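Customer escalation, tier 2.

The customer says the design service returned an amino acid string that "doesn't look like it belongs to this structure." They asked us to rerun it and document both sides in this ticket. The original structure tokens are below, unchanged.
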């Protein structure tokens, strides 16, 4: 920082004026002495009536006085400028030291502190007032003190040190006793025959932590790269392979020399696949789970999932790519085998379900085909409502078994042509619960037992066996309810003739939104109006 303070003009810097004064005084004194020694007139006028020779002598003396004063004044001015420059330099140095973010400490040969800046206080916890004149040993951990003292002694004896003029890493001890990693730049200079040591110190805790974190990150990345069971590859913008892990070699059957530098397109079953993959990668910046067919060295195909990202430079240009290849060949094969097993199981369950349904119908010949027609009608309604394939299948299976509970009802009640007594009807009303008891122990893929239990419940709570209402009734059970009512009314029964499909439609329309779900009723009406052939195929001669 520049120091603008002016240093006052000294006496020696005005010697020109003083010299002129001395010359004038000399002139007067010399004239007076001349008058006194020659007996001349004492008149003041005699002082100026001198011969040319006398005047010349006096001018020469005055001139010498002037030269002497000018020389002294010049030297004094130069000295003043040098002192001012030195003072400004010292001010700048002090400002630099005090504002430095690094600790700056100077010590003498006795290792006593002679300079201590603010950053040193922040780093070590000691104030400047406390440290000035004190030994630097308090900053050195106990385990290093002896080595430090030996190093100082050796330097003072030989003038040589492996640390002077260099930067090295050490450990420093704070006032609270904690040890911190530090970096020290040490210099040694002689001043008036004595050595002065100056150290610039910065704490390296954060840098060490960052380096350690980077090392650990690199180690983790290296371990992930090498230990990954998936193939990991890096390739250039020109599609040349730069690096691969061990899994890549094992999956594709190449050795490392064959892989490095090879064209990655050679790994693709179809050449156009690599073009499509790279185009998608460049457009989106990264691709995850891209399905494609690759090939081993022996030509055998590999079903794979590719996950990759684009590596770009600071200018945004493509440097290359890095990606992970997961071999899903076995998974695909197992998936196909599982689908085949599930299909077999589904057929088995269907067969068992149909057998159970047939048992009920064998005890009630008048309702033979009822469960099958309700199942077909329920499936058609569910499809019209846009339910998932899984839901549609669950509705169909529940409908196929919805009357399984009637197996506990005496045959004479089921086939009775007349009006049932209240007690007999109570037995009939128990069949949803009985069906639930039979089915709940079977592990179906869907809650079939609950659907069967609820198929006689109504939205307004007027149904049975539990009087459920609203959303407490499963959607699948609401579909069963409509299909069951429509089929029962449209078909012949021992105690009455068929009421017809129109009567059934009037029933569900009349109670739409109260007893029956509005969306289910609407789906059935749409089926009847636009897909009447579907309804006809379900009911056949019963309509």
């Amino acid at each position: 920082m520049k120091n603008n303070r002016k240093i006052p003009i000294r006496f020696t810097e005005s010697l020109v004026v003083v010299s002129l004064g001395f010359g004038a005084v000399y002139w007067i004194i010399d004239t007076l002495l001349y008058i006194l020694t020659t007996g001349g007139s004492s008149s003041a006028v005699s002082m100026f009536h001198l011969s040319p020779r006398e005047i010349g002598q006096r001018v020469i003396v005055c001139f010498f006085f002037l030269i002497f004063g000018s020389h002294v004044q010049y030297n004094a001015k130069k000295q003043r400028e040098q002192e001012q420059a030195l003072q400004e330099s010292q001010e700048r140095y002090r400002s630099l030291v005090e504002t430095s973010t690094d600790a700056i400490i100077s010590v003498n040969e006795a290792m006593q502190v002679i300079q201590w800046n603010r950053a040193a206080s922040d780093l070590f916890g000691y104030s400047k007032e406390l440290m000035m004149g004190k030994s630097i040993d308090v900053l050195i951990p106990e385990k290093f003190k002896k080595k430090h003292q030996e190093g100082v002694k050796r330097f003072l004896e030989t003038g040589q040190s492996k640390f002077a003029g260099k930067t090295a890493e050490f450990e420093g001890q704070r006032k609270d006793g904690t040890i911190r990693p530090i970096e020290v730049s040490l210099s040694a200079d002689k001043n008036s025959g004595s050595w002065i040591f100056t150290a610039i110190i910065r704490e390296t805790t954060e840098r060490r932590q960052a380096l350690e974190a980077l090392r650990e990150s690199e180690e983790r990345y290296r371990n992930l790269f090498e230990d990954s069971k998936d193939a990991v590859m890096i390739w250039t913008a020109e599609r040349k392979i730069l690096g691969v892990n061990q899994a890549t070699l094992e999956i594709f059957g190449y050795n490392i020399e064959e892989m490095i530098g090879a064209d990655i397109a050679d790994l693709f079953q179809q050449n156009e696949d690599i073009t499509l993959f790279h185009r998608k990668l460049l457009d989106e910046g990264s691709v995850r789970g891209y399905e494609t067919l690759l090939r081993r060295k022996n030509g055998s195909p590999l079903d794979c999932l590719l996950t990759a990202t684009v590596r770009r430079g600071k200018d945004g240009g493509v440097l290359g790519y890095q990606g992970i290849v997961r071999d899903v060949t076995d998974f695909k094969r197992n998936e196909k085998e599982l689908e085949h097993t599930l299909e077999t199981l589904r057929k088995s369950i269907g067969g068992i379900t149909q057998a159970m349904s047939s048992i009920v119908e064998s005890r009630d010949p008048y309702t033979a085909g009822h469960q099958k027609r309700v199942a077909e009608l329920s499936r058609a309604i569910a499809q019209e409502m846009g339910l998932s394939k899984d839901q549609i299948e669950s509705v169909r299976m529940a409908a196929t078994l919805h009357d399984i509970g009637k197996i506990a009802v005496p045959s004479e009640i089921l086939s009775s042509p007349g009006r049932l007594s209240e007690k007999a009807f109570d037995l009939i009303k128990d069949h949803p619960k009985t069906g639930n008891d039979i089915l709940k122990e079977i592990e179906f893929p869907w809650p079939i037992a609950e659907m069967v239990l609820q198929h006689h419940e109504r939205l307004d709570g007027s149904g049975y066996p539990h009087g459920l209402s609203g959303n407490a009734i499963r959607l699948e059970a609401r579909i069963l309810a409509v299909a069951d009512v429509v089929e029962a009314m449209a078909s012949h029964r021992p105690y009455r003739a068929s009421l017809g499909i129109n009567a059934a439609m009037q029933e569900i329309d009349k109670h739409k939104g109260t007893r029956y779900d509005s969306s289910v009723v609407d789906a059935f009406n749409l089926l009847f109006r636009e897909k009447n052939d579907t309804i006809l195929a379900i009911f056949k001669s019963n309509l």
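Tier 2 assessment: The sequence is consistent with the input. The longest helix spans residues 52-99. The radius of gyration is 55 Å. Sent an explanation to the customer and offered a walkthrough call.
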